[in-house]
Amino acid sequence: MKIISFNVNGIRAITKKDFISDMKNINADIICLQETKASVEQVKEAVAELNEYYVFANEAERKGYSGTAIITKENPLNVTYDMGVEEHDKEGRIICAEYADFFLITVYVPNSGSELLRLEYRQTWDQQFLTYLKGLEKTKPVIVCGDFNVAHKAIDLARPKQNYNKAAGYMQEEIDGMDAFTSNGILDSFRVKNGDEIKYSWWSYRGGAREKNVGWRIDYFLISENISSKLKDAFILNEIHGSDHCPVGIEL
User: Fold this and answer.
1) Residue 86: φ, ψ to 5°
2) How far is 169 from 148, CA to CA, in rounded Å?
3) DSSP state, residue 75
4) Residue-level pLDDT at 88
């Protein structure tokens, strides 16, 4: 089974590029999207050409903001939306699809913001999202993918010294949030399979960052420890364009 995750930075914009043909070429069993910036109906309309998939989408109360989707060849046993905490459930950031052997969660984790105005909120989110995941894990393993808006270690961004405790995405509080996932048995699949390989999944649109590969790895597949033996591969598809992110994926 191949699963990919992609922050598309606007599903209606990216489908005017090579998104549909890229997805057909990748031929994943499940495609998870973040930052769709669209309503449920707009997402379904945008990906209608992927007609061998079922489409599930979540939208924010605010139009054209946030939003997630799961596009899957196998119809899940059950699909739920959000984590059941009112404070966090207004921005369409979570979808959970239940399959026979695991829960698959796509997530678009809140960004702390350029002025770090949401850093405190982000910490609350991380804590309560971990509680939500551990609750699911009592039933079956979890596979969690998406844009976590944090580079976990110094090797996960091109310029760690310049950004540490100065920029959203590499604040100690955000790193602590990721540490909490990995120290509670929800592992970073890319590191499990690729050790200390340096590869990024997001680049600023400024200053030719992508051409120079001045990037950050902020898109992840985290998996329950007790399903990690099924992990065949974990990869980052740098060659796929269309967004400021690129797709990341796993094979089970």
Assistant:
1) -50, -40
2) 9
3) P
4) 93
Rounded CA gap, 59 and 61, in Å? 7
Token couple for 229? 């033996």
How far apart CA 212 and CA 24 sit, in angstroms, is: 28
List the domain range (segments joined by +) for residue 173: 2-251
pTM, to two decimals = 0.97
Q: Which residues are catalytic?
A: 108, 147
Do 47 and 73 contact (CB within 8 A), yes or no?
A: no
Q: How many CB atoms lie within 10 A of CB 49?
A: 12
Q: At what angle do helices 172-183 and 119-137 cross, to 10 degrees?
A: 10
User: In this structure, what CATH number is given to the domain that contains residue 61?
Assistant: 3.60.10.10
Single-letter residue type at 195: G
**How many independent structural domains does the chain possess?**
1
Closest listed residue to residue 34, CA positions, set 198, 177, 220, 168: 220
Q: Which residues in the chain show pLDDT less than 70? A: none
Cα–chain center distance at 248: 8
